[in-house]
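Example A, followed by Example B.
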Amino acid sequence: MTVGIVGTGLIGGSIAIDLRRRGFADRLLGVEADKVNAAAALELGIVDAVVNLEECAAQADIVVVAVPVGTAVKLLPQILDMFASLPDGGRKVLMDACSTKSAVIEAVRNHPMRGRFVASHPMAGTEYSGPRAALSGMFDGRACVFADPQDSDTDALEIAEKLYDKLCMRVVRMSAADHDVHTAYVSHLSHVISFALALTVLEKEKDEKHIFDLASGGFSSTARLAKSGADMWVPILLQNRDNLRRVMHTYSAFLEDFDKALETGDEKALRSLIDNANRIKRIIR
């Protein structure tokens, strides 16, 4: 099996590492616009060769697109066009790893090769980026969403499932619209909160040494996501902005409840808010 990885950073690189180590891929091809990242992917052995998009589409049995969603929306129809021009294009599989799904699927909805595309989102990652951030085992035990799987060919879905099984992921199937709502709650809001927290602390705490000396584990874990890069997150937030804004309004309402309880010294209200929040223990351990 030859697998092409378009975007050899954290997600694409981590996929490549485990597909090789776990015997799924005999050969790994990388497509990487950043020359520094391309050199690193080769140096680290993440891919066997760096090729252009046309060569990747022609040589790979599976192409995984792991680039920012704004770029993916442009690339996916191009790759399906390339598949259509190849004698064996009807047997190839195209997948993405983007954090939003509606715009991605809309970009290929009416393409004659739509069935060869599996819209997927492996729900894992870190705040770091680039090939040197890639690591083995990052996806183990995590969920991977297949969005609108009914629009993909049966054999393409089977191949995608085998790939994610090698990554030790469990597949969850849902509509693209449902995916984008759920990720607004459990992923995208968390990043906005982390960015806002970092901005608040940097604005008000001018002494960086005090931040370093006094910041506890709670602050570090909450602000960790603020290290995530704008190139990745600006397109995600913009493409899911309607869902995200609704979620942010709900979040803001709870902030106002805390503010009101603090203003009035209402211990009972504070206790109620915290006790209700503690119900998350049933879900996250």
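Example B, a separate protein, is given below in the same form.
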Amino acid sequence: MPVSGADGDPRLEPLYASERATTAGLEWFDAHTHMGENDPDGRSATAQEIVDALDRAGQQRALIFAMHEPDGYQGPNDAVLAACEASAGRLVPLSRIDPRLDPITEAERCLAAGTRGFKLHPRSDAFPMPHPGVEQVVQIAHEQRMPVLFHAGRGIPHLGDAVVDYARRYPDARLILAHAGISDLGALDAAAAELPNLYFDTAWWMVADQLQLYASVPPGQILHASDAPYGSPAYAAWVTLRVARAVGLPAEIRREIAGGQLARIVAGEDPADLGPPPGEAALGPRSIRLERAAAYATGAIMGAFRGLIPVEALQLGVSASLTTRRDAEAEILALVRRLFGLALEACAACEAGEATWPDVVAPALAALVLAGTPQAGAPQVAF
């Protein structure tokens, strides 16, 4: 399967495509994709596989950088730069830097070769924050008006204070917290409002985190991202547009989140001010029925991520999505129930050795997102 199977069940494509009709003429620019063959986690992707995934999703461009390379980043950075040069503008390079290993030399070497920014990964490259080597990279980015993308997802302690400090002292560096900044999201509302050079990419799966991001961070500081090959560009775009609609963001702002703002950042231009965040009140009243379904979807997904076959959680999700209502919420619950059914079919295929855990995760993720975003309505699709 392309991009390590992350595209999931092809029956879900009409669902993913349903949101693209809500915002015409999008120029997508993915803030977070990887290439490499030697990551210890076993995942891999070529530049061509990333471009193919963009094509299937109807998308134009992506930032790309090296995956974890235990033997160092000079060669992988060169491979990224070469792939971007050959991509006719589809791929834009970030150079991955290990701040423990003479970061100035590698950053300046990559600058001379055409990089457009830097990637720092405190979990896989095992460095703390703050770190003097990180500050050296941020200072170079400040001088060049370039982005620095920080891993800010699972597996790391709180790093937001350090990044906020860098953002204040280096205002021309564009500092991006990957994975919705979940390591620090709840503590950064005030800092995000204060610091227009502090950004968050959307490469994350938990719908509650996505909703908090879109409700509490200024929309001009949210950048669409897929995390390919770990995530699917088609799925990620669906989530970006659906969550943005759920908090009431209009089409012109959804267009900027999809890629317009990132294009300015990469070009070294001043970002557009897209106004304040909508606030949590934009989400309206809670639906306990949909929250129950979302809870079971979350449990199933986390089990599948750990190699389990989460039949029980999915069966409970089917039960939780039953209703006697006849309204818009019932329409969403019916779609959620169908998605749980697809995930259970994938569980049976896994037990027969005919499928793997991504086949379970794809429909369960879709169920989670639909259950978490009733404000965006029920898509009129069949799958």
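On Example B: The chain has two domains: 2-283, 288-376.
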